[in-house]
Amino acid sequence: MERPIFKPVGTPVEQLDTPALVVDLTVLERNIETLHAFFRQRQPKVRPHVESHRCPAIAHKQLAAGGAVGGICVTTVGQAEVFAEHGFHDIFVANALVTTQKINRLCALAHHAKMTVAVDHPKNVQALSEAATAHGVTLYVVVDINTRLYRCGVEPGHPSVDLVRTIREAQHLNFAGLMTYEGPMPAENPGEVAADSRKWIQQVLDTREMVEKAGIHVSVVSVGGTYNYEIAGTMAGVTEVLAGSYALMDSRYCQFRRQFKPAARVLTTVMSRPEPGTAIIDAGQKAIGSDTGLPMAEDLPDAAVVSLSAEHGRLRLPGDVDGKVSLGDKVWLTPWDIGTCVNLYDYLHAVRDGKLEVIWDIAARGRYR
């Protein structure tokens, strides 16, 4: 566990020990307002996907902003346990839970909160039903439909309708609706992204029509994300959009969601200048993550992070910047994948106008089971 090194409220951000994960509250609140204002004016609402930040304080801000369904989305039962402990009573686990341990933990939560879970296989339905019956609880179940990722999910159309019927016949399960996760789409051609989004989502809406023609009401159609919320949020029949990255953002998403800005960055310190044109900072893979992309040093024009080792990052400095970077200087990095980065920290330093305002617990950090 990260050892807490707390500074008094009002401490200038540059005086925080590094590496430090820092969120700019002004940017965070602006990001939340941008997306939630869109949904406040529409019938579909956002269900914040909190896995990207794992922080109950941020999730409370998201629900308080309006335009939300009143509940949250998580990926693991461990995350659900944490957020239930922090006062959230409508939790959707947008993932299949198939082991006995996970299903029993889900049922335990259902004594205190409305718990919804995704399924894509009849055997999973049977296991959920048996456990819910034994625990004396009702679980809400959503059919996960595969539309693009070929990860989890039953095929749209008749296979999904058959699975819905299986759920309806099961004891202590309440069929809630349908979902899909299409996955982020590059935005070199926004028109193509819009067309593709509509195509994948329409498969779910067509399946919904088939289910309702079979005499079964579909309460929930849950689709989309930060990358296509404007499309998903305007399609008739969609009830909720599972967006999460918009709150903190990262350099990957900012490439094609420019209405949002990076709210969370990692503050680092220059610890060595081994040669001209190179600076070494005190943040590597253990502080940033080792995902598919490198972080951005956006406050140093034309500088670039060229490699990360376990505890060090290497910066390439162009000539006009090289002479301005000294030992002990601070460098801000925007992670490529904010969810991976946040999962490396226990605490989030929240600042406003360059000064520390509060320290938030990243309570669901490491809750991957």
Give a structural overview.
With 369 residues, this protein is an alpha/beta fold. It has 2 domains: 13-22 and 259-361, Beta Barrel (Lyase, Ornithine Decarboxylase, Chain A, domain 1), CATH 2.40.37.20; 25-249, Alpha-Beta Barrel (TIM Barrel). Helix content is 31%, strand content 22%. It has helices spanning 25-40, 56-64, 77-85, 100-109, 122-135, 158-169, 190-213, 229-232, 251-254, 285-288, 319-322, 338-342, and strands spanning 20-24, 45-46, 72-74, 90-93, 114-119, 139-144, 173-179, 220-223, 240-241, 264-275, 278-281, 304-308, 313-316, 330-333, 347-352, 355-361. Strands 1, 10, 11, 12, 13, 14, 15 and 16 form an 8-stranded mixed sheet that branches. Strands 2-9-8-7-6-5-4-3 form an 8-stranded parallel sheet. Helix 5 (122-135) links the parallel strand 5 (114-119) and strand 6 (139-144). Helix 3 (77-85) runs parallel beside helix 4 (100-109) and helix 6 crosses helix 7. The radius of gyration is 22 Å and the shape is elongated. The chain starts with 19 loop residues before the first strand and ends in an 8-residue tail after the last strand. The model has no long low-confidence stretch (mean pLDDT 94).
